[in-house]
Design a protein that fits this description.
The protein has about 270 residues and is mostly helical. Helices cover about 75% and strands about 0% of the residues. It has 2 domains: about 110 residues, no CATH class; about 140 residues, Farnesyl Diphosphate Synthase, CATH 1.10.600. Helix 3 runs antiparallel to helix 9, helix 8 runs antiparallel to helix 9 and helix 12 packs antiparallel against helix 13. The protein is globular and about 50 Å long. The N and C termini lie far apart (about 40 Å). The mean pLDDT is about 95.
């Protein structure tokens, strides 16, 4: 059994390797929240890597995601999980293989909420693997973005409530996640097209997707107004500011923000 200190160091290392966007704000959280949000994010990232995997076939993805969803609904059995992924562990990244570690690292009195959101996400992702990620309507887009990002907002809101009783509106929390995901869809449009995936509903232009992103980022702004804990506010502001500025860059024809722009944005928020 790894010590909690060693596990925290390893968790932050894996987090840095898997998400630049979330590593920065998670690192700025106090010790309790850093441990909780860090472990929760890694759990969701673990299953996300299965959904996005380029070498696993759709049937395997679906089977893995549904079985993981079921494992998360009960007392998570790490040995059963490792046995499940064993045929594919040479293909899977560390963040996925170590799902059991991230759950062990999560504080015991919030881990069930983290498991519930991650289980729902895995089940939703399996559904969208089966649909081959074909988005035809706005309702499809809403459903897809709920499973892959809105649930992150829901899980974070559960954590804020557990931490200090902060109450937030569930729909606004989902909007926060959806807004970030919509910006990713706009940013990755060409890359997605190359692998035959299109998240734009039938008949939608970039202008429509910009409007969808802005509508959800407005919900994220309203969500922020419900939070008074400074440490949590800073955490939430960073991905939101990066999303808004990425949207602005995309509108002006750039592919993304520069690293210097990212660092300046983060510094401004920390020093406000």
């Amino acid at each position: 059994m790894r010590s909690q200190a060693k596990l925290e160091k390893e968790a932050m290392h894996v987090l840095k390797l898997t998400s630049r966007t979330f590593y920065i704000p998670i690192k700025l959280l106090n010790s309790t929240l850093k441990k909780t949000v860090g472990s929760a994010y890694l759990c969701m990232r673990a299953i996300d890597e299965i959904e996005d995997h380029e070498e696993l076939n759709p049937e395997v993805k679906q089977q893995l995601l549904l079985k993981i969803s079921n494992l998360l609904k009960n007392d998570f059995d790490s040995n059963a999980y490792l046995e499940l992924i064993k045929p594919y562990d040479s293909l899977l990244p560390e963040v996925t293989i170590r799902l059991g570690d991230w759950l062990d690292f999560c504080p015991a009195d919030i881990v069930d909420k983290v498991k519930a959101s991650t289980s729902e996400m895995a089940e939703g992702m399996a559904k969208w693997v089966e649909k081959d990620w074909v988005v035809k309507t706005k309702e499809d887009l809403d459903e897809y973005t709920y499973y892959v990002a809105g649930l992150v907002g829901v899980m974070l809101s559960d954590i804020w409530n557990w931490y200090d009783g902060t109450e937030t509106d569930r729909e606004l929390a989902i909007g926060y996640g959806r807004g970030l995901q919509a910006v990713n869809i706009l940013r990755n449009k060409e890359e997605d097209a190359e692998r035959g995936v299109r998240f734009f509903p039938d008949g939608w232009t970039r202008t429509d997707m910009f409007a969808y992103a802005e509508d959800n980022l407005n919900k994220a702004d309203r969500y922020m107004k419900q939070i008074n804990t400074k440490n949590i506010v800073i955490f939430c502001k960073i991905p939101l500011a990066l999303a808004n500025r990425t949207l602005k860059a995309l509108k002006s024809g750039k592919e993304k923000m520069s690293r210097a722009e990212v660092e300046t944005t983060v510094d401004q928020i920390i020093n406000e």
